[in-house]
């Protein structure tokens, strides 16, 4: 006998179907699951770039980082109390230190700042010789052909900085060493690599290449085109070797790629509109360094638009490094395998650092007028927010942690609102 308030079976099936349809159409998804480490493996590539760089070294003079800082040509940026920016108006955290770009770099639409790293990433003693420096990567978005990526070397003692153009070395049709802009795809009419994150570790500069993996540059090979007998820094429309002369889009210094680490399947594909996949190769949107445990590790992460699915917020991973030589700590097959990976607790993360078992996340979502956000997260496999969120500067990007000072450094990207600054780690 049917109970008085029982629902008929057909009606019950209809209600279940409607409920399931509601779940699907509302965007609600199952609870997040830990990423598979099989998705986080990189294979070595571009070994011949080191050979071509050595050939360039035989033809071009070079200059070390400390001397580049000493003669940095961007000496007209505001200093000290004069260094201010409307980007900081939204920050709920006290700014401990800040550096400005000059008016031309703040206003340019041709270059956009993205990644940040400091000498604290490079050296455990936090000095490079007698200098301390902050590096900022910029991608080129307003030129045809694309000019690729440049890096600002900023002297923390003076606030002066120098741009260095990153380049991809190759042997030209005449058999001579040359180079071109850093683009994706590398050959042809590719767009500039986004350079959303950089890490200076020992002698090497690691740079995120969104669909490919990580590119590696060597700080010992920064070539001085202006001082070369066959160099030309007056012609802004050429790069590489042409008729025996080396060009650099007008930049005095170029630093070639010497190695690369790539997804096993080559360039990965992702959904449009900054969306992400739940599994498969990781998107390399930003990188940072964790020195808080053995071994040191490079951190990589994904920027993902809000897809109303906790499994699509993005992933972060930790990649072990060999501190003695500054290179990846590879497995027995020569692959670079991540030691752990985790789901992010929120979308639109622009930068992430990990230290002492806690993650710090920079996120955006309010365009060039509203604040960014800084939030902590903890967990294993699936990260959860740690109870607080602070509004921070407008347009925050990559993050870098400075141990000893207990500071989180970042850079803001929007035209007219660009600044390098740090806050105390909350």
Question: Helices and strands in order, then pairings?
Answer:
Elements: H1 9-26, E1 41-45, H2 48-57, H3 65-70, E2 95-100, H4 103-107, E3 111-118, H5 119-122, E4 133-140, E5 149-155, E6 161-171, E7 177-181, E8 183-184, E9 191-192, E10 198-201, E11 204-209, E12 213-218, E13 223-224, E14 231-232, E15 239-242, E16 245-248, E17 253-262, E18 286-290, E19 297-301, E20 315-322, E21 327-328, E22 336-337, E23 340-343, E24 349-355, E25 358-363, E26 372-380, E27 382-392, E28 396-402, E29 407-412, E30 419-424
Parallel strand pairs: 6-17, 14-16
Antiparallel strand pairs: 1-17, 1-22, 2-30, 3-4, 4-5, 5-6, 6-7, 8-9, 10-11, 11-12, 12-17, 13-17, 15-16, 18-19, 19-20, 20-21, 20-23, 24-25, 25-26, 26-27, 28-29, 29-30
How would you explain this protein's 3D organization?
With 426 residues, this protein is mainly beta. The protein has a single domain, classed as 5 Propeller (Tachylectin-2, Chain A), CATH 2.115.10. The protein has 5 helices and 30 strands. Strands 1, 3, 4, 5, 6, 7, 10, 11, 12, 13, 17 and 22 form a 12-stranded mixed β-sheet that branches. Strands 18, 19, 20, 21 and 23 form a 5-stranded antiparallel β-sheet that branches. Strand 6 and strand 7 (177-181) form a beta hairpin. The chain starts with 8 loop residues before the first helix and ends with a strand.
Concise synopsis of the structure shown:
This protein has 426 residues and is mainly β. Helices cover 10% and strands 40% of the residues.
């Amino acid at each position: 006998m049917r109970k008085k308030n029982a629902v008929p079976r057909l009606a019950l099936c209809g209600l279940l179907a409607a409920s399931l349809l509601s779940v699907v159409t509302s965007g609600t998804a199952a609870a997040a699951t830990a990423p598979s480490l099989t998705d986080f493996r990189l294979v070595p590539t571009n070994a011949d770039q080191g050979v071509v760089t050595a050939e360039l070294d035989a033809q071009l003079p070079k200059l070390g980082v400390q001397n580049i800082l000493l003669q940095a040509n961007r000496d007209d940026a505001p200093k000290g109390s004069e260094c201010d920016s409307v980007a900081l108006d939204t920050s709920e955290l006290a700014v401990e230190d800040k550096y400005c770009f000059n008016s031309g770099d703040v206003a340019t639409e041709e270059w956009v700042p993205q990644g940040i790293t400091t000498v604290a990433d490079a050296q455990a003693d936090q000095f490079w010789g007698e200098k301390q420096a902050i590096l900022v990567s910029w991608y080129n978005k307003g030129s045809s052909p694309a000019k690729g990526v440049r890096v600002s070397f900023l002297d923390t003692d003076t606030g002066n900085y120098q741009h260095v153009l990153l380049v991809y070395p190759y042997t030209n049709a005449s058999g001579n060493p040359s180079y071109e802009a850093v683009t994706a795809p590398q050959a042809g009419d590719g767009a500039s690599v986004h350079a959303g994150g950089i890490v200076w570790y020992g002698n090497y500069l690691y740079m995120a290449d969104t669909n490919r993996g990580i590119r590696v540059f060597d700080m010992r090979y920064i070539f001085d085109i202006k001082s070369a007998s066959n160099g030309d820094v007056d012609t802004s429309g050429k790069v590489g070797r042409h008729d025996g002369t080396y060009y650099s889009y007008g930049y005095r210094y170029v630093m070639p790629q010497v190695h690369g680490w790539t997804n096993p399947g080559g360039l990965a594909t992702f959904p449009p509109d900054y969306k992400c996949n739940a599994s498969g190769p990781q998107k390399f949107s930003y990188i940072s360094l964790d020195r808080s445990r053995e071994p040191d590790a490079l951190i990589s992460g994904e920027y993902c638009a809000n897809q109303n699915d906790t499994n699509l917020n993005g992933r972060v991973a930790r990649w072990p490094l060999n501190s003695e030589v500054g290179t990846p700590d590879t497995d027995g097959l020569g692959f670079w395998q991540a030691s752990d990976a985790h789901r992010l607790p929120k979308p639109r993360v622009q930068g992430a650092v990990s230290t002492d078992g806690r993650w710090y996340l920079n996120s955006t979502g309010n365009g060039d007028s509203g604040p960014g956000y800084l939030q902590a997260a903890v967990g294993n496999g699936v990260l959860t927010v740690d109870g607080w969120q602070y509004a921070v500067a407008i347009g925050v990007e990559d993050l870098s942690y400075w141990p000893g000072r207990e500071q989180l450094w970042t850079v803001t990207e929007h035209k007219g609102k660009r600044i390098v600054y740090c806050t105390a780690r909350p």
